[in-house]
Amino acid sequence: MTSKRIKIVWASFFVLLSLLVGIGISVSKDGTSLSILSSTLPLGSEGVNALAFTFMMGFIKWANPILCLFVGMNIMDDHIQSHKLLQRYLEFFIGLWGSLKEGLFYTQLLLLPLFIFALRFFPTNDLHELLILNGVCFLIGIQYLLWYTLLVRLVKHPGLSLFLVLLLAELSLRGGFLVDFGEQIGLKADTVHYLSLYLPALPILFVSMDVFSATTSLIAIGVPLFLSLLALLIPKAN
Questions:
Q1: Measured between alpha carbons, how far apart are the two ends of the chain, in Å?
Q2: Is residue 109 part of a domain?
């Protein structure tokens, strides 16, 4: 768990930043300029909604799962070290629960200024889409943690395990190309189908909301959870 001092500083900073967004920012009537306190920022013909919405979508997709992973790594490390098998399983779920709580605290405070901005200036549909994306990306953060737990049990090195999680996320992104264009480059339709079905089991990088579903969620969490539970069978090295 992170220290109370870090939590207080983190919460204070982002609450103050949220207040600044709430009372110190305004948008021109035509939506082409943004005023921050006494400074005016021209946004061009696209307007604040298009630019800010695109930025927020990208930021949430990147920051939410990565921060959840970083916050939960040490917690999971501390809870899977027991020499007794049943104790390892019990501590695993305790650590996962603690990681979820810590991850929610840090990620949602980080994103609070963005949601304050969206609440003030975005239409309801855009705000709703951001909230759904936020939930999905936090789910992906849990997936990252499960993959990290699996890999750290196998390679016995936190830094290397983190690198491998991010590498797998990059590979899953590249695999999406095969799903989209596999048939055009000669892959069989069945191969593309199974690839699209099981690819979400790998750490997901920059999720596409168009293809994310209940089945995708089940595969994304269920597969690494099952593999992590299997990896806990590996005895702790003395």
A1: 25
A2: yes
